[in-house]
């Protein structure tokens, strides 16, 4: 009996030490909480799962694309940038990877960041040809300009945004002007989303630029128009995105790189947590719905995280082991 009791105590002690060692390996983890909804939701999901599933001493710190990426390269902190639109600082991030400071853990959105020209689904349901640029140009008269009934309206990207250049060049490349379209500057993101909402509520035609994942595309069913051109990423980068593009050609928007970036020091001390991050990704359609829920419920990242963990277990349990999933569920 003494031998059995001693063995049991030894086993319990060993298990306790192993648990402490596991938490110690993960240790203190800092996660960038970016100032837009999808990134804040994902940061809070990572916080909850790493803290409760992997025993990490995790905390959120404020973040934004440029300062967070620069700090990770130069100072090695924060440990995790859950949603980094990496094209805007690709050279710096690639240098950080080359020097052994950073690692790209995974693409956080399965399809990447998505841009395109869109029409409401109810229009395509009525006339499937409107899902193509040929169909839109042929039926240009449907898209009445709000200030001039003799013209057609194409809602472009707000002035000052990089997408204003690309949408304008593609407007010219596909000769929208020849079909009677006029490029409308919506003035702001709110103006652009408001024009979609207004059209949808009245079931009126709408045609223009938008991107995903966004709450708007989660709330309103839109169809991305096929240019019939395929995607020429090189031409898009060298010409379509430049204001001085002299001979723009039609090309679909290539996906934008949206990555989870981590420091190499974190990757080395917590491989189990890195395995989770490498599997953690969302489809744009799923994130659109989550963002719409956040907007409708005026929810911040923490509240949205709770909603996601409770209602999307079929999604997140695929990212972790059954043992970790059990811990996360218990923590609710």
UniProtKB/TrEMBL annotation:
The keyword Membrane does not apply. SUPFAM superfamilies: Periplasmic binding protein-like II (SSF53850). Residues 28-310 form the ABC-type glycine betaine transport system substrate-binding domain. GO terms for cellular component: ATP-binding cassette (ABC) transporter complex. GO terms for molecular function: transmembrane transporter activity. It comes from the Bacteria. Residues 1-23 form the signal peptide. The keyword Cytoplasm does not apply. Gene3D superfamilies: Glycine betaine-binding periplasmic protein, domain 2, Periplasmic binding protein-like II. Keywords: Signal. This is ABC transporter substrate-binding protein. It comes from Veronia pacifica.
